[in-house]
């Protein structure tokens, strides 16, 4: 079970990095994309970050139960 959670954590962290890079790239370039989607990209990054942290906490919790 913890291996599945670990794999999902890696995917969630990758999603955070991808959304962050798109958002920062749009901000650096400016223009219509940034005006239309800049705030939404950072909100999406925050959501993905929350999910990743929650999964990390779940993973640590599951590892603690299995170790006892």
Rg measurement, Å: 16 Å
Distance between the termini: 16 Å
Order of helices and strands: HH
Low-confidence stretches: none
Count of DSSP strands: 0
Tell me the overall shape: elongated
Q: Tell me the structural class.
A: mainly alpha
Polypeptide structure, described:
This protein is mainly alpha-helical and 68 residues long. The protein has one domain. It is built from 2 helices and no strands. The protein has helices at residues 2-29, 31-67. The mean pLDDT is 90.
Structure keywords:
elongated; mainly alpha; 68 residues
List the helices and strands and how they pair.
Elements: H1 2-29, H2 31-67
Helix pairs in contact: 1-2
Provide a short characterization of the protein structure:
Helix content is 96%, strand content 0%.
């Amino acid at each position: 079970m913890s291996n599945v959670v670990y794999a999902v954590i890696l995917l969630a962290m990758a999603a955070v990095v991808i959304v962050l890079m798109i958002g920062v790239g749009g901000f650096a370039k400016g223009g219509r994309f940034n005006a239309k989607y800049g705030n939404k990209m950072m909100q999406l990054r925050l959501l993905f970050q929350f999910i990743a942290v929650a999964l990390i906490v779940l993973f640590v919790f599951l590892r603690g139960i299995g170790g006892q």
